[in-house]
């Protein structure tokens, strides 16, 4: 069936051919970057295909020899476009999923090649295919981490996400119709190009004459240098320069300057006809510049400029990918995560790595799983990084250890790496005890190492304001033995997307989860998230930590009020997300944290849409009189949404949020609704000093909109060791 799909370069639809609307025929002519089955290493670029009641590309001879007639129609080959999950069961015989790939308009393919013709076509095909396999696909649009030059809007903008969440593109939110215009064949531009040879003499008239205006710093430069300076500058900077230099202002601009406006990186670089070979013909460049400027707001030229920018960006990725060597390490099975899980599973919490058999709509995907064995002590660790979309990502690790050098991932040639050295000298000191990573949904952003005696290394890469996870590498250290650490990592086309140790034992909440902004200290007890439903759904998003008791419980005596922000429409019943918690605010009777007198877990307000329904329930706490929070009952509805909770205090008080929550749960339970609750209490001799929760955008029942809500609750408890707790 015909479904809407978007070009991977420009983001606009690849359409059916519409003979009655010839102006958009270019959108029906597409090429596919494709392969057969799991033949990842042999991608091809197809000839011009078409979409009608099915998607077809011209039959490639290499494929024709294998393909049965079922998917071949004389000269056409059926293809499945924008596939993002792979079912091993389908790779048994030829079928509609056998030939699959990524579409781009023929015009866009041409613009991509014209934008950086020096990259050989084979390198473009090979590297772009791997890059495409590394990007999530939302609603048949490839998510490169940009909005296609403003063509698409965000349903969930990058600036609005909760920690660890992915931005979500909203498809088909086009502003205007410029994206429908053919970016290659532009009659208005052609008529400008045809006017070559216009009044060539006038182009030579502007000469940057040296001058006797001695105070002008540009007076000392000869004509050639001034021309060179001007040609290198952006046009806006040239205007500024004219205000600063009377010589330049009075001389006007020479022909070579106007010509340079069509060079790569300059304002008219997308007029590729006038760059490279096209710029060698005699031409009045000043006049040409004026004529092109006059048609600058032509919709087709606007579309070309937008796609040209996207092509430059993509070619930058292709060049960076081309620089990477092979992915090093011991290869592992690619079907990771698909064995025990149901294929085609849609994972709505995709902050994590999507196995091949799962839908890949957010987060990241590993194209390569690699293992490395580190034997004995380690002398040095080298970390390679890539910069992508303005962010640092780890792309490879290399360990100098007792038995040589072991590397994993990418180590780009000629790129600067960062090193962590271990200088100590005892037999045990060089052992890595813990790796800590900082990550975003797309990959591993930073790493630091805890060695047995040197303590924590500095961070390499980014770590501020990012979720973190620890990876334990503990092995027995005996004088005679040589402890071995087996490190496993997954990589997409450009970066590390997961890191763990092989055979990781079942460990505590603290050791297995992502935490934000920092991993709770080892002295804290973590209580919560035990129900299988929560474990099932919570895996990928970090727990946000709120230490309302302060780092050492010092703020507890100053806590005077707890305010629960949320939506309370419990009178409508508990189902359908009629009650939700946006945030829990802790108010103090003095300034406790950088001058603030309150801190919030989550958010103390709702979005505009949900605001009319929002509520704030308050409970005062007599902390000065020794009252403390002693427990929580968190209540959930199907499958994993927290709808409210009960707070217990040491004064024997009990408060529900929203009020009567438990009553409605019981009523709904009698109606067959599947609710459950978790009773959270601190272990003996400890005291609650913080809460943690997974924050996520979720549907607000009464409004149909999405807002940031607390999905669960957990406790952070500290040992009652100092005088702060003595009144408790
Ligand atoms: Zn396109």
Structural class: alpha+beta
Q: Number of domains in the coordinates? A: 3
What is the annotated CATH architecture of the largest domain?
A: Aligned Prism
Largest sheet: 6 strands, mixed
CATH topology of the largest domain: Vitelline Membrane Outer Layer Protein I, subunit A
Number of strands: 41
CATH class of the largest domain: Mainly Beta
DSSP strand content: 25-35%
CATH homologous superfamily designation of the largest domain: Jacalin-like lectin domain
Instruction: Kindly report the average pLDDT value.
Output: 83
Shape: globular
Organism: Bionectria ochroleuca (Gliocladium roseum)
Protein name: F-box domain-containing protein
Domain F-box: 215-261
Pfam families: DUF7600
List the helices and strands and how they pair.
Blueprint lengths: L4 E2 L6 E2 L15 E7 L7 E2 L4 E2 L3 E4 L2 H4 L7 E2 L2 E3 L1 E2 L17 E7 H10 L5 H13 L3 E2 L2 E2 L10 E4 L11 E3 L16 H7 L6 H4 L19 H10 L2 H10 L1 H6 L3 H6 L24 H10 L4 H25 L6 E2 L36 E8 L2 E11 L2 E11 L2 E6 L7 E5 L10 E9 L2 E9 L3 E2 L3 E2 L6 E5 L11 E8 L4 E6 L7 H4 L2 E2 L8 E4 L3 H7 L4 E4 L12 E10 L10 E10 L9 E5 L11 E7 L8 E9 L3 E9 L4 E4 L3 H10 L5 E5 L5 E14 L6 E5 L3 E6 L9
Parallel strand pairs: 9-10, 28-30
Antiparallel strand pairs: 1-2, 3-4, 3-10, 5-6, 6-8, 7-8, 11-12, 13-14, 15-16, 16-26, 17-18, 17-20, 18-19, 21-22, 21-25, 22-23, 22-24, 26-27, 29-41, 30-39, 31-32, 31-34, 32-33, 35-36, 35-38, 36-37, 39-40, 39-41
């Amino acid at each position: 069936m015909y479904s809407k799909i978007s070009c991977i370069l420009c983001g606009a639809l690849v359409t059916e051919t519409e003979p009655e609307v010839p102006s958009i025929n270019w959108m029906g002519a597409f090429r596919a970057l494709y392969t057969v089955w799991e033949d990842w290493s042999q991608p091809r670029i197809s000839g011009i295909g078409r979409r009608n009641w099915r998607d077809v590309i011209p039959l490639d001879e290499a494929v024709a020899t294998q393909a049965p007639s079922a998917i071949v129609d004389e000269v056409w080959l059926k293809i499945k476009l924008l596939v993002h999950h792979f079912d091993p069961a389908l790779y048994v015989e030829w079928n509609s999923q056998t030939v699959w790939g990524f579409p781009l308009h023929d015009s866009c393919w041409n613009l991509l090649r014209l934008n950086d013709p020096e990259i050989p076509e084979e390198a473009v095909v090979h590297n772009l295919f791997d890059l495409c396999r590394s990007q999530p696909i939302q609603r048949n649009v490839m998510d490169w981490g940009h909005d296609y030059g403003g063509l698409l809007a965000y349903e969930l903008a990058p600036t609005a996400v909760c920690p660890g969440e992915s931005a979500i593109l909203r498809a088909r939110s086009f502003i205007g119709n410029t994206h429908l215009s053919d970016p290659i064949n532009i009659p208005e531009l052609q008529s400008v190009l045809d006017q070559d040879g216009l009044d060539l003499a006038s182009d030579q008239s502007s000469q940057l004459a040296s001058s006797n205006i001695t105070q002008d710093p540009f007076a000392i430069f000869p004509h050639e240098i001034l021309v060179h300076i001007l040609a290198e500058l952006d046009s806006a900077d040239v205007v500024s320069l004219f205000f600063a230099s009377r010589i330049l202002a009075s001389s006007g601009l020479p022909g070579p300057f106007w010509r340079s406006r069509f060079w790569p990186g300059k304002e008219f670089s997308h007029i590729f006809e006038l760059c490279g070979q096209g710029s060698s013909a005699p031409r009045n460049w000043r006049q040409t510049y004026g004529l092109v400027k006059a048609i600058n707001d032509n919709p087709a030229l606007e579309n070309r400029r937008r796609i040209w920018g996207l092509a430059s960006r993509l070619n930058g990725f292709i060049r960076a990918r081309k620089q990477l060597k092979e992915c090093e390490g011991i290869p592992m099975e690619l079907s990771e995560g698909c064995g025990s899980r149901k294929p085609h599973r849609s994972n709505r919490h995709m902050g994590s790595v999507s196995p091949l058999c799962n839908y890949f709509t957010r987060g990241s995907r590993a194209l390569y799983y690699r293992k490395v064995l580190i034997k004995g002590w380690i002398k040095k660790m080298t970390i390679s990084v890539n910069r992508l979309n303005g962010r640092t990502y780890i792309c490879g690790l290399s360990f100098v250890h007792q038995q040589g050098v072991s590397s994993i991932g990418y180590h780009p040639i000629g790129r600067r790496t960062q090193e962590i050295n271990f200088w100590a000298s005892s037999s045990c000191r060089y052992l890595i005890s813990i790796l800590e990573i900082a990550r975003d949904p797309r990959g591993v952003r930073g790493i630091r190492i805890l060695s047995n005696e040197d303590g924590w290394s500095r961070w390499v890469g980014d770590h501020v304001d990012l979720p973190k996870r620890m990876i334990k590498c503990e092995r027995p250290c005996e004088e005679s033995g040589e402890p071995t650490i087996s490190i496993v990592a997954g990589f997409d086309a450009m970066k590390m997307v997961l890191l763990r140790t092989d055979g990781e034992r079942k460990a505590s909440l603290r050791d297995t989860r992502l935490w934000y902004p920092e991993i709770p200290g080892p002295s804290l007890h973590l209580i919560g998230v035990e129900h299988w439903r929560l474990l099932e759904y919570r895996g990928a998003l970090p727990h946000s930590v709120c230490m309302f008791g302060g780092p050492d419980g010092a703020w507890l005596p100053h806590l005077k009020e707890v305010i629960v922000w949320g939506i309370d429409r419990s009178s409508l019943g508990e189902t359908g997300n009629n009650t939700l918690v946006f945030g829990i605010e802790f108010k103090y009777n003095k300034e406790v944290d950088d001058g603030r007198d309150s801190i919030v877990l989550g958010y103390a307000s709702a979005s505009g849409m949900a605001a009319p329904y929002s509520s704030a329930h308050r409970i005062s706490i007599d902390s000065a009189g020794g009252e403390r929070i002693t427990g929580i009952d968190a209540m959930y509805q199907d499958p994993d949404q927290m709808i409210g909770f009960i707070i217990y205090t040491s004064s024997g008080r009990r408060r529900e949020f929203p009020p009567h929550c438990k009553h409605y749960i019981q009523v709904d339970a009698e109606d067959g609704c599947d609710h459950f609750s978790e009773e959270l209490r601190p272990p003996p001799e400890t005291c609650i000093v913080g809460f943690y929760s997974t924050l996520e955008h979720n549907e607000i029942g009464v409004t149909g909109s999405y807002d940031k809500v607390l999905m669960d609750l957990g406790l952070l408890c500290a040992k009652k060791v100092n005088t702060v707790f003595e009144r408790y």
